[in-house]
Amino acid sequence: MTRPGARSRAELLRERLPASWRFGAGEAQPLARSVDADDLRTCRPVYAVWEITLACDLACHHCGSRAGHKRPSELSTDEALDVVRQLASLGCREVTIIGGEAYLRKDWTQLIRAIRDHGMDATMTTGGRNLTEERVKAAADAGLQGVSVSVDGLEATHDRIRGFHGSFRAASEAIGRLKAHGITVGCNTQINALSWRQLPQVMDHIIGQGASHWQLQLTVAMGNAVDHPELLLQPYELAELYPLLASLYEPALERGLLMVPGNNIGYFGPYEHLWRGGPDRTNHWLGCNAGQNTIGLEADGTIKGCPSLPTKGYTGGNIRDRALEDIWVNAPELNFTRDRTVKDLWGRCASCYYADVCRAGCSWTTTVLLGKPGNNPYCHHRVLELEKEGKRERVVRVQAAPGLPFDQGRFEIVEEPLSGPEVARAASTLPDPRGRAFKLPVLR
After folding, report:
1. Taking the model in full, what pTM does it have?
2. Bridge partner list, 188
3. What letter would DSSP give residue 255?
4. pLDDT for 58-110, tens place per residue?
5. Is-contact 344 374, C-beta < 8 A?
6. Which are the contacts of 30, defined by CB distance < 8 A and separation ≥ 6?
7. CA-to-CA dists, residue 220 to 5, 155, 250, 265, 366, angstroms
8. How far apart are CA 53 and CA 74, in angstroms?
9. Would you state the pLDDT for residue 3?
């Protein structure tokens, strides 16, 4: 409910967002990647995330791709420029370049310029450790429009997670350089066991730096994170995390910062109307979008339905062997979400009230955790339902990862009784997720 005399959430969104943003499907989004009904109907890949190199100048403990050195067979400049052409032909409207660190590829600004010349928006995600004045100016001249800078906690926490002393300061300085050159700047934060209690202070910091939006994502058990299971939040901790995030949402908006949920934030708890509700608070999570309106590209030409998914099992083909359109339209490894039904779900997700809409949330999160999608313990609704039963879930690593890019180990879900403090909290403060959010019809 809006406080007496306060502006509505819709008014705040319209007033605070940069002119380059608008209301899209479910929330305010960058103009190019907003998905409309025709995009949904035709499964058009409107948004591409492209790892243009695995070379990196950081050593992040959570890095799913285990970035550091370039791949042995990364695309040549000519091959990469042809990828740009093929993305545009498929109807892509925004390309985000990532790494590793995108700026460590020598032709990175040439690729930015090509993306813009083909009528697509060009954005980038970066750790910013060596995003120098010279590099920022070159990117701005090439047409780079927006950058998301990673800020993963306060200084000591960020530097620990990112593997280099001074990386927090470097990221903060990079934000200033980008803004000075007229590039829209947001931040992204990995939420994990080290960072989550610092989120209010992180928010203050990035607002002070001038960020316009803040993407939040749970750290996922892939790559380096499998080697550091102490980083991972336990599912039952979401019962404390989400009320904290919800308490930050409107204060952030009033100060000009839009909190944007990653694909593993949610689902269907009492705060779904904040994460994805839109101005009228009626929209909600619609299931994993991998291979429907998003596409992921690895630096060697490997094509996936989502950039975060493992290479093994989710590679539809390689751009060197098949046309991008052929891979997008015909590869079953990219089409899996288009055909997913409740019959593909298992565990608690199979019998959930929201099963036919949610389809077990983020495929990346569940695949790398449990070996296959379809059963997601990192769900707010599920955590709250378990609390009603006096139970909680904990994940335990039972198999290490082999040490390859985008690899995974294996975790198991342990269901156990709530501890004493959790029992007291559940009894006294547990909200009703259907009553406070909305009750959805089961879609057939």
Report:
1. 0.87
2. 150, 215
3. T
4. 999 999 999 999 998 999 999 999 999 999 999 999 999 999 999 999 999 99
5. yes
6. 20, 21, 94, 121, 123, 146
7. 41, 22, 27, 12, 9
8. 7
9. 39
